[in-house]
Amino acid sequence: MWKLTIRSPLNTPREYVLANGTHILGRYSDSEIVVNDESASRRHAEFHCQNDSLTVHDLNSTNGTYVNRIRIQEAQELKDGDQIRVGFHIASVKYQKTEGAKPETDRSSITDTQPFTRDLLLEAIDKNAVLVHEFSNRLTSILDLDLVLQEISKFFQVAIGADQCQVILADQFDQINELGFSKAIADQAIQKRSVIVVPDTYHIKSISDSAHHYRIRTALCIPVMHKQEIIALVYAYKTDAEARPFDQNDVHISIAISHQAALAIQRSQLIEKVHGLEQLALKDSLTGLDNRRRFLTEAKAEVKRARRFNHPLTLLMLDIDNFKNVNDTYGHIAGDQVLIAVSNRLQNNLRSVDLLARIGGDEFVIMLVEADEKYAESIAKRLLRTIVSSPVKSDRGDIDITISVGIATLNEGHATELALLQTADDALYAAKGAGKNQIEIAANG
To answer: What 3-state class would DSSP assign to 47?
Structure first.
């Protein structure tokens, strides 16, 4: 008995049992083997089956019929394990003797592990170059790690016809049970650094309990390798008892795809790491507020916008009164707790559009967009009341604090954001000189 299993990047695998006679493959809907592929001709190829013999003949198609990656020019006799490519579709040929055949002995069903070797990887990529190319193209434009993992899962699910498929990153290996997969299968893949295929989980005592719990009938687990490190697992399974078990072709496809998946995961994780480092460079590590560098970048854009549309823009400079005494009296840990408490109180009393940053040891700056001097003064008074209303609770006890505020509104005398910042800083200096715990407004000139 001859079987063809048709695979493509767009459809789940389809299996055809070829009876004796002639079978047409093509894009025509009345073809016995239909391939929905623009690269395939309407009547593309013809199979002739006669007992133990199977041949394929190209019907003068535009793009040709390939057997084991070689374009055929005349009728080609096929053997068990041959591959036929028509456009983006790959047909795997399987022959099984009907007399005395036992499904359990199907040689394409794997009941053990396959070490993830370089030779196995190269063989898999060679046999599935079309799928690998399509998969690689899909991942090229995706940078977000979560979206990459979703695309990998979807492609795997379609390519091997799984009911469920998920990519499990290395930092999730201890959560495999909670994610709905058999830990016993995953542990084998990790410990043996091998591809694990279970054609029928009900016949494997060591995993039958968990498989029964999740209704897993046939399972496939592939380690995603980067150099010699397992960075993820791809876990796929089917729950239908009548479903085709995973076979050697599924293994080769999965290994080939896993190689591209490893590259995509590594790229996305690297991008996330770089982004994280960029954020660290723009954030104050203690309070989580923007730092001076980030604030000046944002302030420059806001000053330009305010000038362009003739909108008001006001800056508040604040610092904690007698902060050196806090550090000297209570210690630097308590001082850090004061800084965190002040930043939280400031954030809770500002609009989401306002810019808040820590630009020095105990100095904070606030840019109030679309805000004039009168509004800024009301905000400053609110902040003074908020800070003085209750002491900061620290490891060394309650600490009473106050702040001083300098206010400057953007005008023609401010050539840049730095000039505006300097005016606000001068007003802050005047507020501290006048007795602290108060507000000083810069002259508008």
So the answer is: strand
Give the strand pairing for 164-169 and 83-86. unpaired
pTM above 0.70, yes or no: no
C-alpha–C-alpha distance, residues 220 and 433, integer Å = 74
| pLDDT of the residue at 86 | 93
- Long-range contacts of 385-391, Cβ-Cβ distance < 8 Å, separation of 24 or more: 386/345, 386/348, 386/349, 387/342, 387/345, 388/437
Residue type, 264: A
Give the model confidence (pLDDT) of 12-28 as tens digits.
899 999 999 999 999 98
**CA–CA dist 154, 152 (Å, integer):** 6
* Residue range 189-237, pLDDT digits in tens: 888 888 988 877 766 655 655 556 667 788 899 999 888 899 999 989 8
Q: What span, in angstroms and rounded, lies between the C-alpha atoms of 170 and 216?
A: 22
Give me the percent of the chain exceeding a pLDDT of 70.
93
The model's confidence at residue 103, banded by pLDDT at 50, 70 and 90, is very low
- Average pLDDT score over the chain: 88
Specify the 3-state DSSP secondary structure of 384.
helix
At 59, give phi and psi (nearest 5°).
Answer: -95, 55
Q: What is the DSSP string of 111-163?
A: -SEEE--HHHHHHHHHHTHHHHHHHHHHHHT---HHHHHHHHHHHHHHHHT-S
End-to-end CA distance of the chain: 95
Residue 246 contacts residue 197 (beta carbons within 8 Å): yes
DSSP state, 73?
S
113 token code pair? 């592990």
Q: What is the DSSP annotation of 76-121?
A: EE--TT-EEEETTEEEEEEE---TT--GGG-TT---SEEE--HHHH
The rounded distance, in Å, linking the Cα atoms of 124 and 397 is 66
Show the tokens assigned to 343.
Answer: 């930043």
Task: Select from 74, 76, 92 the least CA-distant residue to 128.
Answer: 92
Contacts of 57 (CB under 8 A, 6+ apart): 45, 46, 47, 48, 72, 74, 75, 76
Structure tokens at 131: 């799928």
Which of 72, 58, 21, 61 minimizes the C-alpha distance to 39?
61
